[in-house]
Amino acid sequence: xxxxxxxxxxxMATQRCATFSQVEQQTSFDRMMIDYYIMGLLNIGxxxxxxxxxxxxxxxxxxxLGENYIDDYERANPDLIIKRFVS
Length: 87
Fold this sequence. Notes:
Organism: Spirosoma pollinicola
Strand order of the largest sheet: 1-2
Distance between the termini: 31 Å
Helix content: 40-55%
Protein name: ArnR1-like winged helix-turn-helix domain-containing protein
Shape: globular
Structural class: mainly alpha
CATH superfamily: Winged helix-like DNA-binding domain superfamily/Winged helix DNA-binding domain
Strand content: 5-15%
Number of domains: 1
Number of helices: 4
Order of helices and strands: HHHEEH
């Protein structure tokens, strides 16, 4: 499967466990677009949702498969790479 730039952007935004609002801030995509892509990425196993406590906001995390897809995307599209956050 080949991922789109929008999917890649969402995956990059969730590398360090991000809430919906954080993904929105990092990508500048509208809420409907983010919701659409997050649901799709969850369904194909590139993201996982963790909400350990019902009172907490859902956090979206990159799976190992998602990391592999980021690497594949960056090899195939070196001009479209989003710089990784380094802490």
